[in-house]
Amino acid sequence: MRIKSLQLPPWAGAVMVGVAAVCFSAKAIMIKLAFNYQVDPLSLLFLRMIFSLPFFVVILLIRPGSGAGKLTITDYFKLAALGILGYYASSLLDFLGLQYVTAGLERLILFVYPTLVVVLSWLIFRKPIGKREMAALLLTYAGIAVVFSHDAIRRQPNILTGALLIFGSAFTYAVYLIGSGRLIPRFWGGFLTAYAMTVSALSVIIHYLVASPTSVWQYPGEVFGYGLALAVISTVIPTFLVSAGIKAIGASRAAIIASIGPVVTIVLGYFFLGEKITLYELAGTALVLTGVLMVGGRKRKTGG
Fold this sequence. Notes:
Layout: H1 10-35, H2 41-62, H3 73-97, H4 103-110, H5 113-125, H6 131-148, H7 151-154, H8 159-183, H9 189-211, H10 221-249, H11 251-257, H12 260-273, H13 279-296
């Protein structure tokens, strides 16, 4: 007998998305702290996925599918592709990029993903970009330009490399959102997330076993602690919260609530990493948030 998915009230969905945003915001802080122990990005990502994998496997075993009908082989391939692109590729690019940029800048660049969703929806599905969306795009990328106009930012070693890696992470995550947004109505969102994350974790493990020149056992216990925290606090909990939250309140409202993410990261970076908060960063963040909120607040057509 199949149990129906619990329909959450809108306020619960909003709380879930807000908590998820805070959890995701803490990810960059923990990664930067772990880097103090000279752990390489791939090894740290490996630990994150090793600790995450059992949670998602349990979900798959408890509830192996849901939706209007049975999953086809094509469905499984689509979900696997989303997992590889949205969590494996995106996470790897993010971890690599954080070697060169601050936690605050990382979150700010990552946060442009809603604008990328708009652009990709236009390119792939020919969904028109209105004047509001165009203004939002200009504001968002003007905000990024303001941050990079600061000499202290430009003088950071390999800052452009790090920024491009983070932008690549945002791009792959935007593709994941577009794909998952079309699949979630057909399947239980928790199953989609668990399956995508399981494929992603296995991809990371294979990558590590094939390509890593080091062994994780050489690192101190603190690195394993950060890996566990990344798995539970910034992976397992927020991915399911976001999935449930989007189903309850929709992607647009979820994007608006998630806008607290960059601000939370900047504050956490100040207290835990000693990252300075500049007027350039505040001004750029304000522009980016305004642009993203304009995208998230746009009126959505039925079936769009």
